[in-house]
Amino acid sequence: MESALPSAAERYLDRLERVLWALPSEERSAILLELRGHFAARDGNVEETIEALGPPDGLARDFLAAGAGGGGPAALPEAGTPLRLSLHAVLSQVLATWRGSREGLFTVGAVLLTALVASDWASFTLALRPDSALPAWVVTLGRTGAVLLAFCAAYRLLLSSASRAWAVDLSAIRFMGGLLAALVLTAAGAIAVTRAATAGLDAAGLSGGALSAARAAVAFLTLAALAVLLLRIQPWLAALAVGRRELSLRASWLGTRGRTAAMAKGWAVLVLPLYLLHFLLSYAAVKLFPLGVAQLALAGLDGIVSTVMALAAVSLNATVFRWVTGEPTPAPRPFGSERPRADLIEAARIRLGQLAGPPERRIG
Amino acid sequence: MDIGSWQSQLRKGAAELVVLSLLKKGERYGLDILEQAGGSGGVLSDGTLYPLLTRLEREGKVEARWTMADDAKIPRKYYRLSGEGEALIGEMQRHWHEFSAFVSGAIEESRHGKRTAVRGRTIS
Question: Between helices B30-37 and A25-42, what is the axis angle to 10°?
């Protein structure tokens, strides 16, 4: 038999099932069956019911915290507590986050790759032929817009059951505005600190190698401090993308306390090497080769590198989001594509039929 | 102070008492509990109820059974108080009455500036 619910309810239960993957199957099935009945009894008010239940990832966290599966409240790390993870553990968690939505991320990757290759090629050409008819701001605008949209879609695919990953709605606008503001403020802060420090160094009478070394040290420390600041607001930005407004900027800051080292390990391995490679490829395209087919080849290479880097960064940020909210990581996608509910309900019916006794007989 | 966080803590503490009190009247399923609780001042919501029932069942305070009505397509899970839950709810209600009287008294005192009943009282 099939008991069809509206598609939004089915998507909600599908996501919940995937996020509860760590539970024993009987217990997970019982939770899903009870909620299926809840949706059916609410009769038509699917959106209201989903809103009242809250995000499936959050509901899964509450079930686990309630002791479902025997885990008990201690099974989840409390937000804000120090998280000492080995590099292997960080990478494993990022991989698990990525595997939870990998099909969707291929689409994001394709969009990013196309946008980045095209904008790279245009940028390289513009750098070598400044009199080109194509204004630089058009390239920058196109690249920025595509990247912001792709990041927003990636967060939605990784962190929610949103079927409208690419929708440019209020949440998407908030996310894009928040990310742009964070980047602009960070860059402005970096420039201001570096200028002030340089003026101070000049006034101190340093010169030659000592001045250069001091400037480099100031620049490095400034960048490191701002990088930590940017890392710690990433959960808030991810929350903006998926419409989880309860995770405020302050909550993001407090929730990442004691976890910066784990985040930095992930960035150092997953993002930083790719960023350096991207820098080298861009340098080679405009400094080492004359304008020609080399720029196209390097734009292709750089597009691949930058796309992988972007997906790695988003997956890492989504993992950190889960550290802050305490929400579990969903099962790999193939698990969620199974549709066992009809069998489950039929099995329950058969079992109840076998019992056929007074209502006090317990089967759950 | 974050009033939302404080309210959330209050609700968490009260939700268990509300659910157990409703189950004291007889067995109920999830949506039935929500409807009986009415608005419940935000104490109970769809999203807080089911994890709470899971915890109460796990702690042995409630028992559950599945039934399938003849015309239903999906089985329904009913909850009722266990023996332990029966014993617990009486204690909880007694403590709650003492607690709420104490808090109300303190609030009244602060409003009217009276130095009366609450001074020296303790909650057992």
Answer: 50
Asked if B64 contacts B77 with a C-beta cutoff of 8 angstroms, the reply is yes
Strand B28-29, strand B76-81: pairing: antiparallel
A293-325 and A56-65 helices cross at what angle (nearest 10)? 40
Distance CA A124, CA A283 (A): 9
Q: What is the CA radius of gyration of chain B?
A: 18
Mind telling me how many Å the CA of B44 is from chain A's nearest CA? Answer: 10
Distance from CA of A296 to the nearest CA of B (A): 53
d(CA A83, CA B120): 44
How close A228 comes to chain B (CA, Å)?
Answer: 26
Q: What tokens appear for A24 in the block?
A: 């024993």
Which pTM value belongs to this model?
0.71
How many whole angstroms separate alpha carbon A197 and alpha carbon A191?
A: 10
* Most distant pair of Cα atoms in chain B: their distance: 63
Sign of CA dihedral A275, A281, A283, A285: negative
- Distance CA(A254)–CA(A263), nearest Å, equals 14
Maximum Cα–Cα distance across chain A: 94
Q: What is the rounded distance in angstroms from the CA atom of residue A159 to the CA atom of residue A70?
A: 25
Q: Which residues of A touch B30 (CB under 8 A)?
A: 34, 37-38
Nearest-CA neighbor of A150 among A184, A122, A119?
A: A119
Q: Could you read off the pLDDT of B23-38 as tens digits, one per residue? A: 998 999 999 999 888 7
Cβ distance A35 to B54 under 8 Å?
no
Report which of A329, A332, A259, A336 is spatially closest to residue A76, judged by C-alpha positions: A329
CB contact burial A174-212 (16+ within 10 A = b; e otherwise): bbbebbeebeeebeeebeebeeebeeebeeeeeeeeeee
* pLDDT (mean) for A57-66: 88
Interfacial residues of B (vs A; Cβ cutoff 8 Å): 29-31, 45-48, 50-52, 54-55, 58-59, 63-68, 73-78
Q: What element of type H or E holds A230? A: helix A208-241
The predicted structure's pLDDT at residue A283: 93
Q: What is the pLDDT of residues A209-259, one digit of tens each?
A: 888 888 888 888 888 888 888 999 999 999 999 988 888 898 898 888 888
Flag the least confident range among A342-351, B90-99, B105-114.
Answer: A342-351
Of A143, A124, A135, which is closest to residue A283 (Cα–Cα)?
A124
B59 to chain A: closest CA residue: A67
